[in-house]
Amino acid sequence: MESYDTVVGAINGLRLKGYTLDFNLAFDKLTCSKNITCLHPDDFEITEVYRFEGDSNPEDEDVVYAIEAKQGNLKGVLTSAFGMYADAASTEMLKKLSMHTH
């Protein structure tokens, strides 16, 4: 797995590896408006995770996830899911995302 200094660096590096879609968290699924895709927790794997913490405030953390669908050859990126969206995610989705952040 690569090492990146910034969120932008991680996203750009993942784009070069074919993670071209931008996923968003929608409570119990990931959505992609580009191709109208929805992935539930059982439909995808997290293949890489990069965590970034703010220099002056540990609460300024950002997490970049590399996501691969189990079917359909879809690869994309989800950012800030664990910290920012924790209250807006289902229990099942939080389990899926949190097991990759430690």
Please tell me about this protein's structure.
The protein is α+β, with helices and mostly antiparallel strands and 102 residues long. It has one domain. 22% of the residues lie in helices and 33% in strands. It is built from 3 helices and 7 strands; from the N terminus they run αβββββββαα. It has helices at residues 7-16, 81-84, 91-98; strands spanning 21-22, 24-26, 29-32, 37-39, 44-52, 62-69, 75-79. The chain has a 4-stranded mixed beta sheet. Strands 2-3-4 form a 3-stranded antiparallel beta sheet, with no helix packed on it. The longest helix is centred in the N-terminal third of the chain and has 10 residues, at 7-16.
What separation lies between the terminal Cα atoms? 15 Å
Number of domains: 1
Strand content: 25-35%
The general outline is globular
Query: Structural class, from secondary structure content?
Result: alpha+beta
Query: How would you sum up the major sheet?
Result: 4 strands, mixed
Q: With helices defined by DSSP (H or I, 4 residues minimum), what is the helix count? A: 3
Amount of helix: 10-25%
Topology:
Blueprint: H1 7-16, E1 21-22, E2 24-26, E3 29-32, E4 37-39, E5 44-52, E6 62-69, E7 75-79, H2 81-84, H3 91-98
Parallel strand pairs: 1-7
Antiparallel strand pairs: 2-3, 3-4, 5-6, 6-7
Summary tags:
single chain, 102 residues, alpha+beta, 7 strands, 22% helix
Short description:
The protein has 102 residues and is an alpha+beta fold. 22% of the residues lie in helices and 33% in strands. The mean pLDDT is 83.
